[in-house]
Amino acid sequence: MRVLDGEIPSEGDFDAENGRGGDGGDGGDFGSGHFPGDSFHEPDGWMEDYELAFVRSRTPMPYVVVVPVHTDQLGRVEEVGTLLRVSNEGSIVERALVAGRVMHNEELRHCIMRHVTRDLGPLALPALPISMQPFMVAEFFPSQERGSFYDSRQHAIALCYIVTITGDCQARDETIDVEWTSVKSDNIQSIINQMPDGHGRIVAKALEYAGVL
After folding, report:
1. Total domain count, the chain
2. Which InterPro entries does the record match to this protein (predicted)?
3. What angle do CA 22, 24, 27 make, to 5 degrees?
């Protein structure tokens, strides 16, 4: 499983074909044109495989990682959402967070919305944070000896955000299911421990930041 995903646009994605897709296909329900009342243009950020490999070999890649949560009426975190995905080997199901690359000329807010919509569906209705200050920065290396965060493809700098989900989630793309776990559940620590290559540490830090752990 790619710990930091979001490289290749699905057919119909709003930013496919050099950021000029969005014909109403099922891969691009959010932002198939522009933000309501805005003259926003989607970023022209996709690269061919050889271009992406060249850049990855020479510079860190910017990413966002999103910890989806449900909150109560007072804004306190009640549940954490994790994505269930089949591993690259296709043999086991692993847990992951919403994550993906920041496109060239793309605002962080748009990037977060794009990846949340891709993984959780167009009806997830995320409430984006007021500030773009991340609760942590995770540095992924292609060598497991370099630290807790690992991505075999690249050196990546991931800005991590807690995002409240107010709508209904639908598993999409490589996601089998979206599972919500109460932060008061006895299973929460077990779920954190199951998440590979540093994502569990990001969840733990998010819950600590939210005053839960």
Report:
1. 1
2. DUF4916
3. 75
